Amino acid sequence: MKKLLLLLMMGIFGLGCSQETPKVLKTNFSKEALNQKLENEEGQSVTIQQILDQHKGKVLVIDFWAGWCRDCLKALPKAEELEKNNPDIDFVFLSLERSKEGFDKSLERFHMKEKNNYWFASGWKNDFNNYVDLNWIPRYMVIDQKSAIAKYYAISPEDPEIQSTIDNLLKNAR
């Protein structure tokens, strides 16, 4: 009976999360998505637009993650390898921790303090995450030098399209 109840609960709670690839792979951000506020490590408010503006002219990889996410932690070594293999690329880490305390603890615990980190204080459901169809983490996006979306959907840092997108953007910039 306990096993049946456990399976039933897993089925009910599992319905909300799926790794289904979005039907529309967007190439730009909406005004509402760009106005979404996050917090940096110091607790200061910053918008997605401000983050993109800081990296304009560079290829940017956005990594959605959380310290409570088993798949994120499993992917972390490969994400670090992707970052190490692409020293000319900027990386931004968008955290879906449930609290500022959790955000701070995860940055410390997983040695992320020296990176570009932001936290969705508003939680998972917000204008940016809704616009980019965030239905699973980890999730990776590649943004081109003009702040357009070059690679919309990847759930693994080992997705070969991430590296090929980066390589194409760098090659076309020369």
The strands making up the biggest β-sheet line up spatially as 2-1-5-4-3-6-7
Strand content: 15-25%
Outline the low-pLDDT stretches. Answer: 2-17
According to CATH, the fold-level topology is Glutaredoxin
Shape: globular
Query: Which CATH-level-2 architecture?
Result: 3-Layer(aba) Sandwich
Largest sheet: 7 strands, mixed
| Rg result | 17 Å
The tally of structural domains comes to: 1
| CATH level 4 superfamily | Glutaredoxin
Distance between the termini: 64 Å
Helix proportion range: 25-40%
Number of strands: 7
Helix segment tally: 7
CATH C-level label: Alpha Beta
Q: Name the structural class.
A: alpha/beta
On the 0-100 scale, what is the average pLDDT?
Answer: 89
Q: Tell me the series of helices and strands, N- to C-terminal.
A: HHEEHEHEHEHEEH
Keywords: Isomerase
GO molecular function: isomerase activity
InterPro entries: Thioredoxin-like_fold (IPR012336), Thioredoxin-like_sf (IPR036249), Thioredoxin_domain (IPR013766), Thioredoxin_ResA/DsbE_sf (IPR050553)
Pfam family, one: Thioredoxin_8
